[in-house]
């Protein structure tokens, strides 16, 4: 059974997609052992509690030094003894030690087709604003393993979504979430929990793809 820790900062719709997929049997051999947020008021924490999952908040605001926060965050993750860490809208710069300790065992969902519209400053609505400003006809979402860079680790899954001329950033964000993020993040976890992921020359592939 793959033990999964999900790290969140916002509404938790990606967490909800994982919970629903586990309930519906779309994710097998995995369980969420804990949810961690940096924001006390993140609705994702409410979702976790509603599902009976241990949920903790580790907020940078509670620590005088960043180093102390980093240590507390690493300890919180380790306390759930995860086999896989899932970043689902976690908007905190990760401590290097956390990334190092969970190399090839940490994934992130990004709301664009990396490497486009990724990297420092590209998160939330801004991603979709830039996609629209560029006049892109297609966007989507990416699940990738986390490395020491920003949105730069090996790509496991991507799913494309149509951009419509009439789209606002909010409408496009919702379509990307519904049609891409909430589909490929659960699928990525199921691939990992069932040993269907292969690392090859710094890239990663799903078996039978
Ligand atoms: C999603 O748009 C995701 O792509 C990004 O942060 C947002 C998280 O939303 N990484 P939610 O908290 O899962 O609803």
Task: Present the secondary structure layout.
Elements: E1 2-8, H1 13-23, E2 30-37, H2 43-50, E3 55-57, H3 66-79, E4 84-88, H4 96-101, E5 106-110, H5 125-134, E6 138-145, E7 155-162, H6 169-193, E8 197-200, E9 203-206
Parallel strand pairs: 1-2, 1-4, 2-3, 4-5
Antiparallel strand pairs: 5-6, 6-7, 8-9
Helix pairs in contact: 1-6, 5-6
Task: Tell me what you see in this structure.
The protein has helices at residues 13-23, 43-50, 66-79, 96-101, 125-134, 169-193; strands spanning 2-8, 30-37, 55-57, 84-88, 106-110, 138-145, 155-162, 197-200, 203-206. The protein has 209 residues and is an alpha/beta fold. It has a single domain, classed as 3-Layer(aba) Sandwich (Rossmann fold). The strands form two sheets. It has a seven-stranded mixed sheet, with helices on one face. Strands 8-9 form a two-stranded antiparallel sheet. The chain is globular and about 45 Å long. It binds 5-O-phosphono-beta-D-ribofuranosylamine.
What is the overall pLDDT average? 97
Main beta sheet: 7 strands, mixed
**How many domains comprise the coordinates?**
1
Distance between the amino and carboxyl termini: 23 Å
Order of helices and strands: EHEHEHEHEHEEHEE
Shape: globular
Tally of helical segments: 6
User: Judging by the overall fold, what is the CATH architecture?
Assistant: 3-Layer(aba) Sandwich
CATH class: Alpha Beta
Runs in which pLDDT lies below 50 for 5 or more consecutive residues are none
Enter the CATH topology name: Rossmann fold
Structure ligands: 5-O-phosphono-beta-D-ribofuranosylamine
Proportion of helical residues: 25-40%
What is the alpha-carbon Rg in Å?
16 Å
Proportion of beta-strand residues: 15-25%
What's the total number of strands?
Answer: 9
Structural class: alpha/beta
Can you identify the CATH superfamily? Formyl transferase, N-terminal domain
User: Going across the major beta sheet, what is the strand order?
Assistant: 3-2-1-4-5-6-7
């Amino acid at each position: 059974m793959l033990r999964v820790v999900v790290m969140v900062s916002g509404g938790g719709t990606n967490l909800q997609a994982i919970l629903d997929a586990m309930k519906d049997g779309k994710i097998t051999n995995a369980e969420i052992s804990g949810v961690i947020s940096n924001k006390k008021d993140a609705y994702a924490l409410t979702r976790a509690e509603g599902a009976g999952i241990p949920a903790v908040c580790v907020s940078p605001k509670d620590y005088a030094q960043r180093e102390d926060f980093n240590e507390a965050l690493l300890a919180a993750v380790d306390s759930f003894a995860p086999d896989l860490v899932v970043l689902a809208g976690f908007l905190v710069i990760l401590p290097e030690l956390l990334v190092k300790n969970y190399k090839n065992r940490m994934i992130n969902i990004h709301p664009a087709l990396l490497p486009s519209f990724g990297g420092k400053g590209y998160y939330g609505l801004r991603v979709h604003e830039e996609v629209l400003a560029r006049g892109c006809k297609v966007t989507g979402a990416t699940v990738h393993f986390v490395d020491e860079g920003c949105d730069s680790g090996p790509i496991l899954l991507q799913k494309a979504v149509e951009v419509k001329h009439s789209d606002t950033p909010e409408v496009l964000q919702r379509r990307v979430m519904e049609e891409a993020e909430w589909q490929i993040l659960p699928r990525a976890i199921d691939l990992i929990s069932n040993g269907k992921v292969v690392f090859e020359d710094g890239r990663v592939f799903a078996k039978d793809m």
